[in-house]
Design brief:
single chain, alpha/beta, 5-stranded mixed β-sheet, 18 helices, binds uridine-5'-diphosphate-glucuronic acid
């Protein structure tokens, strides 16, 4: 949605049609309330919708009409069979590719936009070529998406780079050039990087693995900081000022979440195993293991600090999304944390500015989370404000770094006054000023800092 909306916004000469089988989702894209929250997206969609940007469920017609097709279906982790829990399920990719092959009456450039393990483009090519009739050809490109949620519009408008992979043949290069021409409508030429298909596919997994690895590295250091009296923010700052390291993605946290990092690393692990590279697989797996450890470590710290029991205690949880400025909760650290607290029979009062009760309850009752509907009904209350969540709470836990939870946005004196005493704050995102909170009277525990 966001990627193609930005193409339509930047290229008025290109007609962009976004198709989905899900009628409710398309209706939402066509309404005043878009199905996803993303700062700046409304303006872009509202400016071009009905002009050169269309949303429809008429998938077949859109395939027939298009010169270029972005395949942007999801590639969830397989739940059963070979590679279960690690490999990506490519059924939707194959389904979409077969549909294109069946319907096409003219040549198409088919662009692999979904994040897929290496060499998927090859499978798509095989399917398309086996089905191409006389006079029509299919060219495959890989064009991975690097936007992050919450900053999608900015990332798409001013990307660090755009990556386009193609088959190294004259026809491949010609197709690649056509997509380069789309992006250079608004992106400087030198930021559009071209390479072969396989490098492009692998670069996407590699970039996410490297980003997640930085977070797991700083989170591993945060455990040492807590045990020794060092401050993880200071360590991150000291390391990040080395220009070879750089300051970004060194913020210690309760653990990374989101639909991509864990999934992509597990794909890389699976790929390494398939290639008989067990040491490489173990290396990348440890990034995920460290993330799980970080989430558990934080929840254990909560229980330990609250005198080794949270049974019947009210715990206010501020933030449920996997990061700020998004309503997305996929793989959010808050889910693990909340499920653990429920199992310890705490009462969790949750507030998130963009995540509603329905979503929270759905996430907590997903298979594998460890809590069932009855427990969730009994132990979880979804609140309308941070203040409401904190009333009579024994502890407040920051799970997402929303700006509205910062010191200058919430009245922490008012929160303190409404909580049970002693009043505990657990800052899982390092957004609060521990010294000021202590002055108010809070007992403060922050990731990567000793008390
Ligand atoms: C990530 C990548 O950043 C994008 O480049 C990529 O395109 C995207 O995955 C994808 O593959 O689709 P996203 O998951 O939307 O984007 O969000 P991030 O900003 O990367 O944050 C991921 C998680 O790491 C969040 O839970 C965030 O809070 C956490 N994080 C991030 C930290 O704990 N510390 C940091 O320093 C940075």
């Amino acid at each position: 949605g966001p990627s193609c909306a930005v193409i339509a916004y930047q290229c008025h000469d290109i007609k962009v049609t976004i198709v989905d089988l899900n009628q409710a989702r398309i209706d939402a894209w066509n309404s005043s309330e878009l199905p996803i929250y993303e700062p700046g997206l409304d303006e872009i969609v509202f400016a071009r919708r009905g002009k050169n940007l269309f949303f429809t469920t008429e998938v077949d017609q859109a395939i027939i009409d298009a010169d270029m097709i972005f395949v942007s279906v999801n590639t969830p982790t397989k739940k059963s069979g070979m590679g279960a829990g690690m490999a990506a399920d490519l059924a939707y990719i194959e389904g979409a590719t077969r549909r294109i092959a069946e319907l096409a009456t003219s040549s198409k450039i088919v662009i692999e936009k979904s994040t897929v393990p290496c060499r998927t483009a090859q499978s798509m090519r095989t399917i398309l070529e086996a089905n191409s009739g006389k006079g029509i050809r299919f060219d495959i490109l890989s064009n991975p998406e690097f936007l992050a949620e919450g900053t999608a519009v900015n990332d798409l408008t001013k990307p660090d780079r755009v990556l386009i992979g193609c088959l190294q043949t004259p026809e491949g290069f010609a197709a690649q050039q056509k997509l380069v021409d789309v992006y250079t409508h608004w992106i400087p030429k030198e930021k559009v990087i071209t390479m072969n298909l396989w490098s492009s596919e692998l670069s996407k997994l590699a970039a996410n693995a490297l980003l997640a690895q930085r977070i797991s590295s700083i989170n591993a250091l945060s455990a040492i900081c807590e045990a020794t009296g060092a401050d993880v923010d200071e360590v991150a700052y000291a390391c990040g000022t080395d220009s070879r390291i750089g300051p970004k993605f060194l913020k210690a946290s309760v653990g990374f979440g989101g639909s991509c990092f864990q999934k992509d690393i597990l794909n890389l692990v699976y790929l390494s195993e398939q290639l008989h590279l067990p040491e490489v697989a173990a290396y990348w797996k440890s990034v995920v293991t460290m993330n799980e450890y970080q989430k558990m470590r934080f929840t254990h710290r909560i229980v330990r600090t609250l005198f080794n029991t949270v049974t019947h205690k009210r715990i206010a949880m501020l933030g449920f999304a996997f990061k700020k400025d998004t309503g997305d909760t996929r793989e959010s650290a808050a889910i693990t944390l909340c499920s653990y607290l429920i199992q310890e029979r705490a009462h969790v009062a949750i507030y998130d500015p963009k995540v509603g009760a329905k979503q929270i309850k759905m996430d907590l009752t997903e298979p594998g989370v460890g809590t069932n509907e009855t427990e969730v009904e009994k132990h979880v209350q979804v609140c309308k404000s941070a203040y409401e969540a904190c009333v009579d709470a024994a502890a407040l836990v920051i799970c997402t770094e929303w700006d509205e939870f910062k010191m200058n946005k919430l009245d922490y004196q008012k929160i303190f006054d409404s909580m049970q005493k002693p009043a505990f704050i657990f800052d899982g995102r390092l957004i609060l000023d521990g010294a000021k909170l202590k002055e108010i009277g809070f007992h403060v525990e922050s990731i990567g800092k000793s008390v």
